[in-house]
């Protein structure tokens, strides 16, 4: 009998632990849904991003920026009779969690459109769910071209797979080629070692970069792949050194990118590492130890701090006192949220000041026609749902902070 | 071939890290035939224990001065969690069906991860860990050793030496061997086997704390999820070396680390194997080796007994 009761206690503790882990993610999303005005129609914008885990620095920035867009819309009474709210879901950068969240959003009648997610791989699992429900999705951060142009985009056969998918971020095609042009033309690098993390985003970006770098006349002296969530890349670092490369390109995210940069330098190879927007985060510098001055990252758009249109955003964001900074995608998330606000506005105006019954489908249609001056510049979408904004910036680590080095509009 | 020494050193340091963690699996298994899947999390908690001490010390304290205190902090955290786990999660189930403690171990592992995630400040993303300032040490023209690895390369053999002496020479160590051979007879001979089991968990925890400190110094960050992959690799190392044998655990760790390093570097140079080399395939080669070793020597490299009770 003694054993049985103890077994029950142990089981209960284990079950408790599992519940605890479930609660952890739930109470974070609940805390954001505090509506105040019941007389108006409440329109909820879903947000999906990694709010916990190693990518949470970016995810929290996305969530807060969309939240800010709704607050500003409410304050300005942007759409009379409508109060905006967000409901945040945590995908932990895991595709299956993303799919689950997508299903929850579709089932929630209050949600009319959503912003997110961060990761291209997560987006792939969500697109289909949203398309069936006519729920518009705007990602502030997905850069994989397949998401909007179909799997055969590279051979020129561009087909938009999901009419509900939009994004405010430029694609890897532009970002990877932009990075290659910078390395070859501006930094005068000729021998590059390419590493990727085998994920949708990282591998795609690395491939596009390599093709463009070779097209320009550079040489890819070696390639390797690392595994997400591992920490020891000294083997790859050793290969970088022995290959004689004068630069490294990394397709992946900052947790691994930071460690890789550190270990490449520890191996005695004094070469810069360049990556995409996935490594453009303060956590990259924090993760990569002491010696990463000179490392580079491309990111979509001009630096938010430098755009006159963004001054207000930065001011409002700090006034709200959010715990986390807006990070790399804050501006794009705000613009994504604002695009939804504008679409709702158009739909409500067409329907005598009320939200129609098929609001989701109408908003999706309206999004295609949205055009306004946002935080990151002109916001509008082309026939694939991609942003028409092709501005990019190269950032460089200088004395332990990201400083913008070059900003320009991408040219073929 | 001039990069071979560097590759071997990389493998050796990584392997020593695996080996230190593997000690915890192998000690516990040797005595109670339990695979303590929560051991990876005990390793992780040790890292956070050491970090807590560092943050508590006045800022600007030299890392070399802080190191002993951080080690003490890490050991207290790891040993505390390991012995508490033994007392409250495993001991009540001793004598019960074999699967019960195993499932408990998995549950405990999730609980510890989530507890650190929820309650340690800012632990929901990787926390940066202090590192020694400066570039890596250049031993030879083509051989660099990271400053953090020096600690690991000194601590790992010292710990092994101390453990070897303890087990073979001291009274408690011999009592431990006796308990491993036959717990019932050991009890008849007047050995307090409960105490011996606690001791096995405590030693495993202390080794995990040393490993966690080395991990932090080596990579400059710790996170609540780091125990999973480290634990999995260490468990593999323990099986490879012969689970139940402490020297086997260290040997298994070093072999595993070196095979991974060599696989990254050299497999793709073999004609026709370009696609199967590099970082993406290193685990495949490590586990291929594990399977081959277990086919030839089911008891592992240094295993003495075929596990008849597990």
Automatic annotation (TrEMBL), chain B:
<keyword id="KW-1133">Transmembrane helix</keyword>
<comment type="similarity">
    <text>Belongs to the binding-protein-dependent transport system permease family. LivHM subfamily.</text>
</comment>
<feature type="transmembrane region" description="Helical">
    <location>
        <begin position="97"/>
        <end position="120"/>
    </location>
</feature>
<dbReference type="GO" id="GO:0015808">
    <property type="term" value="P:L-alanine transport"/>
</dbReference>
<dbReference type="GO" id="GO:0015192">
    <property type="term" value="F:L-phenylalanine transmembrane transporter activity"/>
</dbReference>
<feature type="transmembrane region" description="Helical">
    <location>
        <begin position="196"/>
        <end position="217"/>
    </location>
</feature>
<feature type="transmembrane region" description="Helical">
    <location>
        <begin position="150"/>
        <end position="167"/>
    </location>
</feature>
<dbReference type="GO" id="GO:1903806">
    <property type="term" value="P:L-isoleucine import across plasma membrane"/>
</dbReference>
<keyword id="KW-0812">Transmembrane</keyword>
<dbReference type="GO" id="GO:0015190">
    <property type="term" value="F:L-leucine transmembrane transporter activity"/>
</dbReference>
<dbReference type="GO" id="GO:0005304">
    <property type="term" value="F:L-valine transmembrane transporter activity"/>
</dbReference>
<keyword id="KW-0029">Amino-acid transport</keyword>
<keyword id="KW-0997">Cell inner membrane</keyword>
<dbReference type="InterPro" id="IPR052157">
    <property type="entry name" value="BCAA_transport_permease"/>
</dbReference>
<feature type="transmembrane region" description="Helical">
    <location>
        <begin position="237"/>
        <end position="263"/>
    </location>
</feature>
<feature type="transmembrane region" description="Helical">
    <location>
        <begin position="63"/>
        <end position="85"/>
    </location>
</feature>
<feature type="transmembrane region" description="Helical">
    <location>
        <begin position="12"/>
        <end position="32"/>
    </location>
</feature>
<dbReference type="GO" id="GO:0015188">
    <property type="term" value="F:L-isoleucine transmembrane transporter activity"/>
</dbReference>
<keyword id="KW-0813">Transport</keyword>
<keyword id="KW-0472">Membrane</keyword>
<dbReference type="GO" id="GO:0005886">
    <property type="term" value="C:plasma membrane"/>
</dbReference>
<dbReference type="GO" id="GO:0042941">
    <property type="term" value="P:D-alanine transmembrane transport"/>
</dbReference>
<keyword id="KW-1003">Cell membrane</keyword>
<protein>
    <submittedName>
        <fullName>ABC transporter permease</fullName>
    </submittedName>
</protein>
<dbReference type="InterPro" id="IPR001851">
    <property type="entry name" value="ABC_transp_permease"/>
</dbReference>
<dbReference type="Pfam" id="PF02653">
    <property type="entry name" value="BPD_transp_2"/>
</dbReference>
<feature type="transmembrane region" description="Helical">
    <location>
        <begin position="39"/>
        <end position="57"/>
    </location>
</feature>
